[in-house]
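Exam revision sheet. Question 4 asks you to relate a sequence to its structure. Input first:
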Amino acid sequence: MSQLSLFEVEASEVIIPDDVVSPLESNKSTKSKEFKKQQERWSRYVKAVQDSFNCSWFEASKLLISHRDKRESIRIKLAE
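Answer key, structure tokens:
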């Protein structure tokens, strides 16, 4: 087994949770710990979409929001 295979993450179909919100959609104070957690979670999901679809951050954000709002599954590699 290759050492790199330890870091590979399988792609799976997921439905984006409603609480995965962009910093612009957040209702938390920008100086709060909750905002920072939301921002980090948002970044992790956008990066997963970006890596899976080989697209820009902006395109990945649009795709993520679209799938989240429509409650459609999307195939991404999301490391826990």
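Marking note for examiners. The chain has a mean pLDDT of 89.
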